[in-house]
Amino acid sequence: MKVVGLISGGKDSIFNLHLCKYLGHDVVCVANLHPPITPPLTHEDTGDEMDSYMYQTVGHEVVPVVAEALGVPLYKQVETNDLVYHHETGRDDEDEVEDLYDLLVTVKRAHPEVNAVSCGAIFSDYQRLRVENVCQRLGLMVLAFMWRLPQDRLLNWMIDTGIEARLVKVACMGLDERHLGQTLSQLKPYFTKLHNQFGFHVCGEGGEYETLTTDCPLYINGRIELGDTRVVKHSADVYYLQSSNPHLEPKNDAITTDWKKACKSLSVLDGLEYYEQDYPRLEDEHEHFTMQAPVSTQCYENTASHQHAATACLRTSSTTSVAMSNSIDVLSVPPTTTLEPSCEITNMDVIQQCRYVLEYITATLAPSSEYEILYVEVQVSDMSSFAAVNEEYCKHFPAVNPPTRYCIQTDLPQGILIRFRILAIPSAQAVVNTLHVQSISTWAMSCIGPYSQAKRFDNGGLLMTAGVLGLIPHTMSLPTTGWQYELWLAMRSLHKITNLMSSEYTVLATLFIAGRTPLIPAVQLAAKYLNVDPSSIMGLRLPALPKGASVEVSLINTAHSTDAAINVSVYVGESVEYLLDGLAPSNGALSQCTPSLIYYDVTRYEELDIYDQLPTDIRNSTAMIPVREACIGTARHSLVMFRNDIRYC
Prior knowledge:
GO terms for molecular function: ATP binding; diphthine-ammonia ligase activity. With 649 residues, the protein is α+β, with helices and mostly antiparallel strands.
């Protein structure tokens, strides 16, 4: 990618540029927001340092020299706005983030080839969310490779890579003006001591200190000398260093100019070693076993009666606060809707069908109505349409706190090119926490599109994750070493997500597989990663998954096993009659009209035949997913009905 680096001159922004370059990205230019320039100060003046949760402003007078050392153009802008960001809307014209927007617009005009932004965020959601918001509006990717790296490991990485960063601001107990100008390598033992004494953040993520990078492998034109400096007292116990004549000095000839050699500590990112150290890969007893995927099956012919087999609706049972829809597609949307298509339904392409159905959903069930949508299931008849569908999908869901989502290819009935199922909660009852990380990092698979990694609702009770692929996080590409590696990486991402959301107890996992991946061995290996019995995992074989992946995993989790009572009634069998035997009115199942989900083996059943055998109440509250193979744990089944009832303790 062609990258603009957001820099303050500090260790974080400069080290992330090293990671960008090492991973093959091209740093085209750098950009900086700085405070208004003030006249020369006396020793007692507080100077032009601004307190910002978003940017480091101390040392801004050295930034032009940093750009000179890097050998790339610098774009600067005065920071004029304040902290008035509204998370619900994602923007405010008077927020400091709008200064960043204007700065990046200037960069894009000068360098239209730029398509990514380097961001030095480590743990600050405040900073990450705002950079992501601006970049999403400008169509730019965010590269934040240090996001949520352990601070002790990151500090060692910086020092080992040759980052010479000096303290230019101190603002905590244990640090004072005597420490200004000292390097990270000099202070590392002292930082460790402070951490052991009172939880000092060794990378300064608690605002303990700020730095200026005076030398590093990326400085190709020399190292930075600060020249004449003076200490400024900003406030009680807060001091910073100001330089009046920073300049470049030639580097020692003995210092290597070999990039790879200088950054050899980053070689752990060349393969999967970093992720192995972080989340060990488990061996599978079927390590070398694969199977030939079933051949494509013939879908049934659509009939007029199928158009009204089930009308799109959102239902809850009498014992749950969560509402689930049945299958919503062009043939289930009520024909009386005012959102008539511009052409006959049978002639609509996948984008027209997608638009038609999503307009119905957003008009009747969207967050603007009485429900907040938490989760969206997308089935497509052909995964090659995924990019176009995703583009249309973006227009109908919010960029801020969007629902979680998974997308799968299924053998949909003829005439249906796309189908949705949604899960929602009444807006009046909604207590929802959202995790949506769009930045590319080493942390976990990013969600660049309009969907979140996870939603946790009901005061922290239940967590639902998006469908997660086994992508290498920092490249967002699939490994070439087989389905076992994909499953491992998917589970690693899910581990990071559920850990961050404090919901690590898995109640139910859905494992989608495609290609030559063996179903039962994949379920067994997934159970080992999740530390659950295989019966907690639903395994489903499908024709295809996004990006040509072999596996995709979605979880329902809680913080503890006692947090929520999730009653998932499962009925399996070889016929609809057998399934219905378990739904006798005597147990109250029918009267509750609990939303149901039926997975059926498309090689053995036709959807219309199943619908025709279902009682009306069940038919109108049932979603259908055609699969090519299904199992619960290690037991294969050709017909499975889930009736979900979520109750909170």
